[in-house]
Hints:
- With 257 residues, the chain is mainly alpha-helical.
- Helices cover 70% and strands 2% of the residues.
- The protein has three domains: 3-103, Four Helix Bundle (Hemerythrin (Met), subunit A) (Up-down Bundle); 111-183, Winged helix-like DNA-binding domain superfamily/Winged helix DNA-binding domain (Arc Repressor Mutant, subunit A), CATH 1.10.10; 191-256, Orthogonal Bundle (Arc Repressor Mutant, subunit A).
- Helix 4 (58-75) crosses helix 5 (84-103) and helix 6 (111-131) packs across helix 7 (137-144).
Amino acid sequence: MAPGDARALSKVFFERLRSLEEGTPERQYVRNTLIEMNLSLVQFAVRRFRNRTDGTDMEDVIQVGTIGLIKAIDRFDPALGNEFATLALPYITGEIKRHFRDTTWAVHVPRRLQELRLQLARGNEDLSAALDRAPTVKELAAHLKLTEDEVVEGLVAAAGHSSQSLDHESDDSDSNPRPLAEVLGADDSAMELFEDLHTLAPLLERLEGRERLILQMRFGQEMTQAQIGERLGVSQMQVSRILARTLARLREGMLAA
Length: 257
């Protein structure tokens, strides 16, 4: 049925639907007719997901979209003056998105590993029932006639079947759930050092040649003050004063940055 004809007839059938008693054969007939007349909305919504249906049975997607259509029909009130399609499409696409979220993989995984995951799931269920506990990798491998490496590979691949948003709340030990983004990761101990070196670099560039040379010999080559003094022809005391003065200037510069 053309969309224009479906819209016109749907208005009539919705008015009739609201006047009929729940559970009567006549009401069921009108409801089924509305579903059939508006299946084009499901087809329209499914086309928007055609790039995400790799490996997914399109009939399953259509059936899922039809569930959304039925929900929209049951909730639509023609007295509000809205177009049915305005209500129906969000319900249909919402059901389809939920289907993809619950049944597809969060990351691309080869079909071989997808099938291996299902095989492992069935094997794990059978062995858990027989052993009254979770089976080991070795037991799964023997039961499914696989190598232990294949079992491990399948278990790792199964982790790609779902993902969580960084906004998903985690359960902390203190019963204070926080978004995953706040609890994942850790402070990088090298970050503070990097920031210090980044601040220090332009200060070193402004030092006099002899000051930079003494710093390089003392901290880069790990020479003693006596060795530096001997190399430069000055006393150890002079080297000490130059180092103290230079380090004080660098410290003041970093604190002011």
